[in-house]
Amino acid sequence: MKLTVAALFAAAALSVAGFAAPNASAQITGKVMLQGEPPQPQEVNMAGDPKCAALHAHPIMDEAIVAGDKGELANVVVSIKPAEGKTLKGEVPKKPVVIDQKGCQYSPHVVAMMVGQDLVFTNSDTFAHNVHSLAFDNKQFNIAQPFKDEKGSDRGADVKTPERFAVKCDIHPWMLVQVNAFDHPFFAVSNEKGEFSIPTKGLPDGKYELEIWQEKLLAETPMTQEVEVKGGKAKVPDIKVPANPDKDKKADATDAKGDTKLASAKTKSGACCSVKSKAQAIASAAAQGK
Known about the structure:
Blueprint: H1 11-16, E1 27-35, H2 50-53, E2 77-81, E3 97-102, E4 105-107, E5 110-114, E6 119-123, E7 129-133, E8 142-145, E9 149-154, E10 163-168, E11 176-182, E12 187-189, E13 195-199, E14 206-213, E15 223-229, E16 234-235, E17 239-242, E18 261-262, H3 278-288
Parallel strand pairs: 1-16, 1-17, 3-6, 5-11
Antiparallel strand pairs: 1-13, 2-12, 2-14, 3-4, 6-9, 7-8, 7-10, 10-11, 14-15, 15-18
């Protein structure tokens, strides 16, 4: 499969990011596809640190948009959006979210977690990195990892409220990871095939609204799609994310069988999105190159 990033992009890393492979248990499953030609990816310039450049035999491409040759879109966060004024209850996942620093890149590039879940940063490189959170609604952290650190540093206790925020490395400015924190466990991150599976344990049957977020294409205006859960399961029609969302803001993003649409960034209460923050706005601007 031809990807818009280097072949080192690992499917296994996505499982840590919140993606659960489809299985016989109850799930909301679906696939995210890019509609249109993806933007030309930009090469990551690691010349500022020869140690980083020496780790890669081939150019490393920016991971803001990762699409396969058929449009399979990875790194898309799909989540249940609570109805206004209501909350969703569920167990905090016991498995930690692990973000590794390897080859002067954060891996995976996008993660999703629940407030209260462990968020561990490891360092597979033999030289220094630092982990600098750009959160606003949550406590910022800025820690050094000067040596290889397989055990890692758990910063989950610093994430106490739902928020989307970026984490960067001040030593290597191209290193960036997107963290999506929710107050429920009903979320997933699409894998390299565009597939996602949202666990439904503890989720009552009924109609819900999915929120679909992508750091560059859907950062300011996530998409929404209705889904009905029966017996803890639901199959979502292919979610089609426009490669040029500004051009298609008023158009539906799926065929007649789907109900996906570009959602307003404002709810009736005037608050932005189900996971909101100043950090999200800043991360959005950074992704757009503003």
